[in-house]
Structures are given as C-alpha cells and as structure tokens.
C-alpha cells in the first residue's frame, strides 16, 4: 500500500481451509474441539478460524496476507499458536489508526457439531480483538457431505478509524 488510509470505515475479508486427518487436534477460534476425530493438517496449530480472522484484519487495510508475515517455510512457525498471528495482524491495523468494530465468521465442517461451542469461540475471538462478545457473530455449516475431510472458514469484519 502506497498511501495512508483515511476512510472512516474499512471492510476486511479472510478465508482459510485445512485438510483434516486423524491423530491431530482440531482448534477453532482458539478453542480445542473436544470430540473431533480429525484435526487440521498445518504448519502452525492449524486454527482455520484465526487464520481467516488475521487475513480479514490485514485485507481491510490492504496489508497482504498471513503467509507474508508467517511463511510456512519458516521452521520457527512450526506448531505456532495462531493467536500470535492474530495479535500481529491486530497490531498492524492499530498502528494505522483503526480498530475492529464487529466480526462475522462462518465455519464449514461436517463433524463434530460445533453448536455447543459457539459461545466459547465467540468469547475467545472477542477477547483476542478487545471486543464485547456481542460483536462477534459465529455461524456453522456442514458441507452436506461434500467435503468430509476439510474445514473451511470465512471471516468478514468492519474496521473503524480510531485516530
Ligand atoms: N459442524 C457443524 C455444522 C453445523 N452445525 C449446525 O447445524 C445446523 C445445520 O447446518 P447445515 O449446514 O445443515 O445448514 C446449523 O444450525 C448449524 O449451526 C453445527 O452445530 N456444527
Ligand atoms: C499459518 C501458516 C504459517 O505457519 O501455515 P499453516 O499453519 O499451514 O496455515 P495456512 O492457513 O496455510 O497459512 C499459512 C501460514 O502463514
């Protein structure tokens, strides 16, 4: 980006997907999913919600994507807690005078049912962003059996100018 952003509002959007395989933990929005038979195949902890969230933060200010800041070729990022990625993206946004106002996220996953964890995921995402839980919308979808070994996430958020 060559110029300083001045708009009062900026929209961000992020997406992520990981293959699922047995014998790995599944973590979504920083919440370990207790009854998951399969977890994400990834270089980091594979948290597809937090990856999409970080990309949404970055995209709102045209700051690229998480792979540029945390390359999956860097051994230092092996098993990385994805909360670190979100914190870095949030810092970059705040340095430019913006803060998140609200977030909407969608997880597409066939199994297990995530409904009982909706509040925990919303609470943790809210905590990471410094927002009230009421500003984090969390939706779950199945793939209707089209992608049983796959988790897909999408996050949109609104950034507002704070300074
Ligand atoms: N892993 C999931 C996926 C979906 N849900 C909930 O099930 C309902 C129906 O989902 P469809 O994809 O068939 O429309 C919906 O209320 C989802 O919230 C879930 O809890 N966990
Ligand atoms: C997070 C990073 C880096 O560890 O790798 P993965 O955990 O594989 O996840 P991905 O969603 O492919 O994002 C790219 C990388 O930034």
From TrEMBL:
The record's InterPro entries line, in alphabetical order, gives: MECDP_synthase, MECDP_synthase_CS, MECDP_synthase_sf
Q: Where is the 2-C-methyl-D-erythritol 2,4-cyclodiphosphate synthase domain?
A: 10-147
Which Pfam families does this UniProt record tie to the protein? Answer: YgbB
Cofactor requirement: a divalent metal cation
Provide the reaction this enzyme catalyses. 4-CDP-2-C-methyl-D-erythritol 2-phosphate = 2-C-methyl-D-erythritol 2,4-cyclic diphosphate + CMP
Q: Which residues bind a divalent metal cation?
A: 16, 18, 51
| Single annotated GO MF | metal ion binding
Q: Which UniProt keywords are given for this protein, alphabetically ordered? A: Isoprene biosynthesis, Lyase, Metal-binding
Record-annotated site: Transition state stabilizer: 43, 142
What does the record say about how the cofactor binds? Answer: Binds 1 divalent metal cation per subunit.
Q: Which domain of life is it from?
A: Bacteria
This protein's record includes keyword Metal-binding: yes
The UniProt record lists the EC number as: 4.6.1.12
- Identify the metabolic or biological route this protein is part of: Isoprenoid biosynthesis; isopentenyl diphosphate biosynthesis via DXP pathway; isopentenyl diphosphate from 1-deoxy-D-xylulose 5-phosphate: step 4/6
Residues at which 4-CDP-2-C-methyl-D-erythritol 2-phosphate binds: 16-18, 43-44, 65-67, 70-74
Entry's family note? Belongs to the IspF family.
Tell me the subunit arrangement.
Homotrimer.
Identify this protein by name: 2-C-methyl-D-erythritol 2,4-cyclodiphosphate synthase
What is the species of this protein?
Deinococcus puniceus
Per UniProt, what is the name of the gene that codes for the protein in this document?
ispF
